[in-house]
């Protein structure tokens, strides 16, 4: 498939620059796959579309302030690092913080260069391969962790043109728990504590998994042929108890609703056969595009994604490319808000 099949024109003014308040007042487009119908609502009306036979599966990963701004030691020019993960670990939720990290840097950094930060923190570029760097800090353990959390910034998407500290504080789901992501699972942004309580009272089952969003979310698809793109691996966890409850829900005929594409990728990565998953933790580089056979999820809550992105390919695989692009065109005509802080979509 040619990458151009997943392209569309989006007026810049429809790229949401800040979240709606309250968050569940964002709009909600409902796509019904069987009838190919499109309906419009608000996210706070989500309980109207769910029953006791539904299971919402959330990604509880928490975004960390992984963007460090400093200066090059040799030229004093500005430089920054985006920390992706520890060289020897899987996430930021560590008992011992090592000195070596996988990162991205800008402007282009060279091997051997040293970046200076506040509080006498420094990092040396040990190796470089494509977009990726291996850096070593002059600190480790709690001292390094404190420095990163004290001076680091949220790694906000580049299409947010004038982000404020207030917006950075909102780049997190209300149910985030496990530190480790460098980008938020944004489908969850629409949920508020009040909405979650309403859904709970209605009898909707809640389950949580973890996928720490990593480097791949920042890298564009460059290959002309969709099939040749390679996904970066990201760490995930499904506990045995959650896996058991999800499998039991499936046996009872309940509808598994993935809150976001990250959850969809984890559940489908762990599907060992139709309607059965295996609880596990590890790494996934599952790449979902049209032609993929879904084995576990029944519905998907998601946002409106960038043109030519792997996320747009995933929702196209789930609902059909032509149907999705028709829905996107209607969203543009109806002045929906797009991307991270934009409106939502429920695909059933």
Structure, explained:
A 9-stranded mixed beta sheet has the order 2-1-19-18-14-3-12-13-17, covered by helices on one side. The chain has a 6-stranded antiparallel beta barrel with strand order 5-6-7-10-9-8. With 348 residues, the chain is α+β, with helices and mostly antiparallel strands. Strand 8 and strand 9 (122-129) form a beta hairpin. It has 7 helices and 19 strands.
Based on helices, strands and strand pairing, what is the structural class? alpha+beta
Beta-strand fraction estimate? 25-35%
Give the beta-strand count. Answer: 19
Let me know the CATH homologous superfamily of the largest domain.
QueA-like
Please identify the top-level CATH class of the largest domain: Alpha Beta
Could you estimate the helical fraction of the residues in percent?
10-25%
Which spans of ≥5 residues are poorly predicted at pLDDT below 50? none
**Shape call:** globular
- Summarize the main sheet: 9 strands, mixed
CATH architecture of the largest domain: 3-Layer(aba) Sandwich
Strand order of the largest sheet: 2-1-19-18-14-3-12-13-17
* Overall number of domains: 2
- The whole-angstrom Rg is 20 Å
Euclidean distance between termini CA atoms: 25 Å
Kindly state the mean pLDDT as a whole number?
Answer: 94
Q: What count of helical segments does DSSP give?
A: 7
Order of helices and strands: EEEEEEEEEEHHEHEEHEHEEEEHHE
CATH topology of the largest domain: QueA-like
């Amino acid at each position: 498939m040619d990458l151009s099949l997943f392209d569309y024109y989006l007026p810049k003014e429809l790229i949401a620059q800040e979240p709606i308040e309250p968050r569940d007042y964002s709009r909600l487009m409902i796509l019904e796959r069987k009838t190919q119908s499109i309906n419009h609502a608000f996210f706070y009306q989500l309980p109207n579309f769910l029953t006791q036979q539904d299971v919402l599966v959330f990604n509880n990963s928490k975004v960390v302030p992984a963007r460090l701004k400093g200066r090059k030691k040799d030229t004093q020019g500005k430089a920054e690092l985006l920390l992706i993960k520890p060289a020897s670990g899987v996430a930021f939720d560590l008992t011992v913080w090592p000195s070596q990290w996988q990162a991205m840097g800008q402007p282009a950094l060279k091997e051997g260069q040293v970046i200076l930060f506040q509080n006498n923190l420094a990092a040396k570029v040990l190796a470089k391969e494509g977009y990726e760097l291996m850096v070593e800090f002059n600190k480790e353990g709690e001292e390094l962790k404190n420095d990163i959390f004290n001076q680091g910034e949220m790694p906000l998407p580049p299409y947010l043109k004038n982000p404020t500290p207030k917006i950075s504080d909102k780049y997190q789901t209300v149910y985030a728990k496990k530190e480790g992501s460098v980008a938020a699972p944004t489908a969850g942004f629409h949920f508020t504590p009040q909405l979650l309580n309403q859904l709970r009272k209605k009898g909707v089952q809640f389950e949580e998994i973890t996928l720490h969003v990593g480097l791949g979310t920042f890298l564009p698809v460059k290959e002309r042929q969709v099939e040749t793109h390679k996904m970066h691996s990201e760490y995930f966890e499904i506990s045995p108890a959650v896996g058991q409850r999800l499998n039991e829900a499936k046996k009872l005929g309940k509808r598994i609703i993935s809150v976001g594409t990250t959850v969809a990728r984890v559940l489908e990565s762990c599907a060992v056969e139709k309607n059965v998953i295996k609880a596990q933790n590890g790494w996934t580089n599952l790449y979902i595009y049209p032609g993929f056979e879904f084995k576990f999820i029944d519905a998907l809550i998601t946002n409106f994604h960038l043109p030519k992105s792997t996320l747009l390919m995933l929702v196209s695989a789930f609902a059909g490319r032509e149907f999705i692009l028709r829905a996107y065109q209607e969203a543009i005509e109806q002045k929906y808000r797009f991307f991270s802080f934009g409106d939502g979509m429920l695909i059933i």
